[in-house]
From TrEMBL:
GO terms for molecular function: translation elongation factor activity. Residues 72-289 form the Translation elongation factor EFTs/EF1B dimerisation domain. NCBIfam families: tsf. The gene is tsf. Keywords: Cytoplasm, Elongation factor, Protein biosynthesis. Pfam families: EF_TS (PF00889). It comes from the Bacteria. This is Elongation factor Ts. SUPFAM superfamilies: Elongation factor Ts (EF-Ts), dimerisation domain, UBA-like.
Length: 308
């Protein structure tokens, strides 16, 4: 039987499942609407679709580093509630997604979701996600991933707060000793704690600096309305320099030794290793950042988990 667009539309409106899933269900059931609905329910797709509108702003960040430390990946997988992020099944799924990301060839999330799931190649990443939604009973979302492959050096990671914040950092060096890895871990911890935006001042665009100048100048003018503009301009030079030190990793005060900057710390490590070690790039994920969270109290969260 030929599957028409109107049939797909009707099934989609009835179940809330995705268009491609509806088309597949109708094809598998030879156009029988009732059997197609049962097909989607059995696969957990209809139930998952109903949850898709809920805000998934909690969850976990996980990282996966290859045995040779040459490849690293970081992912954020979201859930609706913090309650679920503590679920062992959800934690394992997030770790599996990170492992998947470490071998992915996808360059974007859409491609990643369409890839075969490593643990069961008969399913795609997206199909496994949908099944997990049906099992756990909340809307889940693989929000983002990043993968690093080190050509001259290695990749290290750090996860803070049980998965609230995660960092992977690529170090450029020809020394991949335990001491070098320890230094990289310290750098990743620094990034997790202080959240720099750049490695060094050289990376900061003139556009960013000019925007900061304008903001700092307006602040200074509001604080000192009687001072002439030329004095204000001199005042903001120091303020801008201080601002840049806060957003540039190498200029930040090193959290483990306040007498050092991160740059000076890496100079010390390089001397100890007998070779240069530098930060090539990094990425920092914080769970739910930028997502508007729905306010719920703990009692409501528990009631939902119990299906009340």
């Amino acid at each position: 039987m030929a599957i028409t667009a109107s049939m797909v539309k009707e099934l989609r409106e009835t179940t809330g499942a995705g268009m491609m899933d509806c088309k597949k269900a109708l094809t598998e059931t030879n156009g029988d609407m009732e059997k197609a609905i049962e097909f989607l329910r059995e696969k957990g797709l209809a139930a998952a679709a109903k949850k898709a509108g809920r805000i998934a702003a909690e969850g976990l960040v996980a990282a996966h580093i290859s045995d040779d430390f040459k490849v690293g990946a970081i992912v954020e997988v979201n859930s609706e509630t913090d309650f679920v992020s503590k679920n062992e099944d959800f934690q394992k799924f997030t770790a599996d997604v990170a492992a998947q990301a470490s071998v992915t060839t996808a360059t974007d999330l859409e491609g990643f979701l369409k890839e075969q799931w490593l643990i069961d190649t008969s399913k795609t990443v997206e199909e496994v996600l949908v099944q997990k939604i049906a099992v756990i009973g909340e809307n889940l979302s693989i929000r983002r991933f990043e993968k690093y492959e080190a050509s001259n050096g290695f990749v290290e990671s750090y996860i803070h707060g049980g998965g609230r914040i995660g960092v992977i950092v690529e170090m450029a060096t020809d020394n991949v000793s335990d001491s070098a890895k320890e230094a990289a871990k310290n750098i990743a911890m620094q990034i997790a704690a202080i959240a720099p935006q750049y490695i060094s001042n050289d990376e900061v665009s003139e556009e960013f600096k000019e925007k900061e100048r304008e903001i700092l100048k307006q602040q200074a003018m509001n604080e000192n309305p009687d001072k002439p503009e030329n004095i204000i301009d001199k005042m903001i030079v120091g303020r801008l320099a201080k601002q840049l030190k806060e957003v540039c990793l190498l200029d930040q005060q090193y959290v483990k030794d306040g007498d050092l900057t991160v740059g000076k710390y890496l100079e010390q490590v390089s001397k100890e290793l007998g070779t240069s070690i530098t930060v090539k790039r990094f990425v920092r994920f914080e769970t739910g950042e930028g997502i508007e969270k729905k306010e719920e109290n703990f009692a409501e969260e528990v009631a939902r988990q119990l299906g009340q």
